[in-house]
Design goal:
By secondary structure, the chain is an alpha/beta fold. It has 9 helices and 7 strands. The longest helix has 18 residues.
């Protein structure tokens, strides 16, 4: 099937990203697999090629404008869903070591199929809830970077994500443009969990008028053992 890839390529150019033919092919195969699987399970409400390019691929890759990704980072993509932002980042920056984590096993099985089909190395998809996985020694405070595009308020997300981050590592939350109030409300939780909000980067997804923000949290101290609280608590009763 033929896809109009000009918009994708010009968006990448605006992010100073150049991709090979092979990488472009990986994105197209990923798109086809996503759309096919979406017929039988709910992975995304966004299905048109150009919409997926803008709202999933370019949105995921916009992180390259906020931090230098040409490093050997060990990254956790928490609540990855259909593989965003982790899979686009892995395709473009193959040196990154990435763990995709999701609480729904059906999604994880789909992601494992994608990773195998795209022949991606140093990336795994694991099934588990953040509240339980963050208590396991192989995950707790093991990552340079934890990313999340999950829809939850920043206080709850911080409780899910910060426990996975090493000291001096970063948690970066993909957020919508209007974020000031949420950032303000999350400061106590972030501090309690050992973090500090260092900046909020506002950006527009290339080639669109869609505004977004990246909230950067630097991990300053180890997270107290009490966090994250047991399943469901961070969402139901965020730290204020």
């Amino acid at each position: 099937m033929e896809y109009q890839t000009e918009r994708f390529l010009s968006g990448l150019e605006q992010l100073n990203i150049t991709i090979s033919e092979e990488m472009l092919e990986q994105f197209l195969v990923f798109y086809q697999m996503l759309i096919e699987k979406n017929k039988v399970m709910n992975l995304t409400a966004i299905t048109e090629f150009e919409d997926v390019v803008e709202k999933h691929f370019l949105d995921s890759l916009s992180l390259a404008g906020s931090i230098d990704l040409n490093r050997n980072y060990k990254i956790l993509d928490l609540g990855t869903g259909a593989g965003f932002p982790g899979i686009p980042l892995k395709i473009v920056f193959p040196e990154l070591e990435i763990v995709l984590m999701d609480s729904l096993n059906k999604r994880v099985l789909f992601l494992q199929e994608v990773l195998a089909e795209l022949n991606l190395k140093k990336i795994t998809a694991v099934h588990g809830r953040a509240e339980e996985m963050a208590r396991k020694s192989e995950y707790r405070e093991q990552f340079d970077l934890c990313l999340s595009r999950a829809v939850a308020n920043l206080s709850s997300l911080s409780e899910y994500c910060i426990p996975f981050v090493k000291q001096e590592g970063m948690f970066i939350s993909y957020k919508s443009a209007e974020i000031e109030e949420e950032v303000c409300q999350a400061k106590k939780a972030v501090h309690l969990l050992g973090g500090e909000i260092t900046k909020v980067d506002k950006f527009t997804i290339p080639g669109t008028d869609l505004f977004r923000s990246f909230v950067h949290v630097r991990k300053k101290q180890r997270t107290p053992k009490a966090y994250p609280r047991k399943a469901g608590m961070p969402a139901k009763n965020p730290i204020h």
